[in-house]
Design a protein that fits this description.
Layout: E1 8-16, E2 20-25, E3 30-34, E4 50-55, E5 65-72, E6 75-78, H1 81-94, E7 104-111, E8 114-122, E9 125-134, E10 136-137, E11 142-145, H2 151-165, E12 169-176, E13 183-186, H3 192-203, E14 207-215, E15 220-226
């Protein structure tokens, strides 16, 4: 998926109130950017890290700038969680997720009291797919999720298990934004309940899929499949 252009370079000064980030541009100007990420952004929202932000001329916006990418350990990390579903949708439609290729894709499907990211349909079969954006490493090359306790994520796993009990196919897709990652596992130290539920879900037939992205200042796309470690 193409990113906004042109992006403006700077360094992160601080991230605060969850959705705000102060950024010092390369010319020394200090601006405040919207941060579209509800997580802790642990390892990413570090003062001094190089960032790329976009600018909007929309007069209705409270903030003209948006934080788009953060450089961590020599790799660009896409922390823009609102873009993650569009990256996943592009991959699902294009067949980049081999386990889920060949299905008709409908975004934002309501199931029970949850809104699931995608409904997939193939003839008389249906599948629910929930997408999670992964920006944390729990080891030198092992990505993990979540980066903070997520009751919402726990609820999604319970919903997928309920769907599986009715005969629907169900999957959780972890979109790994850390370029150095070679595997994925749940972040048990941060949210042990999420890890427990993920293992329970897999045991009940929910598929846990992890795919790494390729992130550059011009685009983000899903590039490679990663093993999911649950032992």
């Amino acid at each position: 998926m193409k990113l906004p252009s042109p992006l403006i370079a700077g360094h992160l000064v601080r991230r605060y109130k969850r959705f705000l980030a102060d950024v010092e541009l390369n010319d020394g100007t200090l601006v405040t950017a919207h941060t579209p990420n509800t997580g802790s952004m642990l390892q990413c929202a570090v003062p001094g890290h190089q960032v790329l932000i976009s600018h909007s001329d929309n007069p209705k916006r409270k903030l003209a700038y948006t934080l788009e990418l953060i450089e961590v350990a020599g790799f660009w990390v896409d922390t823009h969680t609102l873009r993650t579903n569009r990256v996943a949708e592009e991959a699902l439609r294009g067949g980049a997720i081999s386990e889920l290729s060949g299905w008709q894709v409908t975004p934002e499907h309501t199931y029970g009291d949850s809104r699931i990211d995608f409904l997939l349909e193939q003839e008389d079969r249906q599948a629910l797919v929930e997408v999670k954006n992964v920006t944390l490493l729990c080891g030198p090359q092992c990505a993990c999720f979540p980066d903070a306790v997520t009751t919402r994520g726990q609820k999604h796993l319970r919903t997928l298990m309920a769907a599986r009990e009715t005969g629907l196919r169900a999957a959780v897709l972890f979109v790994v934004q850390r370029g150095e990652a070679t595997s994925f596992r749940p972040a048990d130290d941060i949210d042990p309940e999420y890890g427990r539920l993920l293992r329970q879900a897999v045991s009940s037939g929910v598929e846990a899929l992890a795919y790494g992205t390729c992130v550059s200042p011009t685009e983000t796309f899903i590039a490679r499949r990663l093993p999911v470690l649950l032992d």
